[in-house]
Amino acid sequence: MAGWTKAAEPVSGVAKAQKIWMDGEFVDWDDAKIHVLSHVVHYGSSVFEGLRCYHTPAGPACFRLRDHLHRLMQSAKVYRMAVPYSADELAEATKELIRLNGQKACYVRPCVFRGYGPMGVYPLNNPVQVAIATWEWGAYLGDEAANTGIDVCVSSWTRLAPNTEPSLAKAGANYMNSQLMKMEAVINGYAEAIALDINGYVAEGSGENIFVVKDGGLVTPPSGASILPGITRHSVIVLAKELGHEVRKQIVPREGLYISDEVFLTGSAAEITPVRSVDRIPVGNGKPGPITLAIRKAFLDLVTGKAEDRYGWLERV
Predict the structure, then answer these.
(1) Given the residues 19, 95, 170, 182, the one annotated as active site
(2) Which of 52, 245, 267, 289 has the fewest CB atoms in 10 Å of its CB?
C-alpha cells in the first residue's frame, strides 16, 4: 500500500575484496555463494561476529579477535551448532584472508550457518558451514557522527523477551527485530533507534550498546535487559574506569535518556558514537560531551597504535 515505505536511495553494495574464506578455502568474492534452499535462508539459522582490523604503525591489527571468536563459538553452542573449526583455526584464517586481500584496515565478518540439506524447522541434519569476509568500511553511522553526534529515537519495537530468543547469542535471526527498529528510525529522520526491553527499560540500539553519562558517572543496561553484551562495551567500561569514572550496570528508565548529561553508542561497527538528541530532546547541550570524547580518544588511540596496547587487545595480522 502506498505510503507505507519510503523510497530508498540507490546504494552500492559492500566494497569488494579479492577473496572470501569459505569452509577452509579462499574463494573469489563473486564465487562465495550458497544454495537458495540452505537452511539459513528460510529459518535464519546463523550466528556471526563483527570486528575491525585497524591500521597501526606496526601494520594491520585485529581488535580483540580472540574475544570475538570466543563469543562466536558460544553463540553457536547455544544453538547446538557444532563448528567444524577451532577458534585458533578461524583466527589464522582471518589473518591470512586480510593478507590475501591486501587490506591495511577492514571490517571482519565471521559467520556460522546451517547449509543445504533437509527442509523443515528441525536443523540438526543440515551441515554447519563457516565463512569469513573482510571489506573496507568507514564510519557506520556517518562520517560526521563523531563530531556532531547523531539523532536517535526510542523505537516502538521492543527487544526480545527472555526465553523467546537468547539475546546473549549473536544470532542472525535476532536482527530481524533490529531491522524493524532501524527502518522505523531512518524513515522518520533519525540515524538510529533505541529499543526498550519488555519492562519498559532501555536495552540497546539496533546494532549497538548504549551508555548514559550523569554527574560524571556512566551507566549501561545490564545483560538482563535483553542486550548483547558487546566487546566494545566491555572495552569502554575498562577505559572509563582507567580515566577515573564510575561505571554501573543497572536498569535505565526511558526518561533517563532525556535528562542525561551525555549519551553514546558503542559497537564494533559504530565504535564510539555520541548521541546529540533522543526523540528530538537535546542530550545535554546537544553536542558530544567531554567524557564521551575522552573515552573515544582513549579507545581510538589504543586501537590505532597511538597508545600502548596495555590490555593485549590488538592481534597483528
Answers:
(1) 170
(2) 245
